[in-house]
Each structure stands twice: as structure tokens, then as C-alpha cells.
Amino acid sequence: MNNLDKIETILEENIYPVAYTLSTAVNINNSGTLNEQMLEKAKRAFIMETIGVWGNELVGVKQDYPQGDIADVTFDIDVVVLKRKDFNKLKGFYEQLFESGEENFTDKA
């Protein structure tokens, strides 16, 4: 598989699209501003609801040898998150290169 094919696979198949809108009630303080603690909890819940479905694909798990009824588990994640507008710019750039015949990328990938 050449570099162009690798890039196309990444841009077309190896993505995890997320687009979701959720409204929820968040407590306010006496001053009428949002309770920052509650807001942070709601944000974390929103992230779990939207990208948590790909936990198996994004998070690696390594279990150490158990001692008694306890085993240490190490979680690992190594991902890059892009805003959709930035992803679309990269994809558009790739498509322009492909259409113009300038797809001879160096072999660094």
C-alpha cells in the first residue's frame, strides 16, 4: 500500500465521527452563574456519552499478574482529536493534491 492509499484509508475509514447535541439542566449559584463543578461533571458525562462508545478501539488495557484477588490494570490512549472544520481542511487539501496529480508524497508515513 503506497502512502497515498494509507492517507486515503486514514481520512475515509480510520475516523470516529462525532456530532451530537445534548441539553441538560445544570444548577446555578446564588449569583445566577452556572455551578462550575456541576458544569464540569456534565461536560465529562457528555464526552463519555459521545466518544465513550469507542472505548475498545481507543483505549488499550494491560493487566498485571494478579496478587490475591487484585490485579493492577494499566489504561493507555494515544489519539489525536481534531475539530471537524480542521479535519475537513486536511481532507480537502488531500483531495486537491490527488486531483492535481501531486500525490507523490515522500515515504515517511
Describe this protein's structure.
Helix content is 43%, strand content 9%. It has one domain. The chain is flat and about 60 Å long. It has a two-stranded antiparallel sheet with strand order 1-2. The model has no long low-confidence stretch (mean pLDDT 86). It has 109 residues and is mostly helical.
Distance between the termini: 11 Å
Radius of gyration: 21 Å
H/I helix tally: 4
**Widest beta sheet: strand line-up:** 1-2
Q: Tell me the overall shape.
A: flat
Major β-sheet profile = 2 strands, antiparallel
Strand content: 5-15%
Number of strands: 2
Mean pLDDT: 86
* Helix-strand makeup class: mainly alpha
**Unreliable stretches covering 5 or more consecutive residues:** none
Output the helix-strand order.
HHHEEH
**How many structurally independent domains?**
1
Helical content (DSSP H or I, runs of 4+): 40-55%
Feature tags:
9% strand; flat; single chain; 109 residues; mainly alpha; 2 strands
Concise synopsis of the structure shown:
This protein has four helices and two strands.
SSE layout and pairings?
Elements (H helix, E strand, L loop, with lengths): L2 H10 L23 H16 L3 H4 E5 L9 E5 L6 H17 L9
Antiparallel strand pairs: 1-2
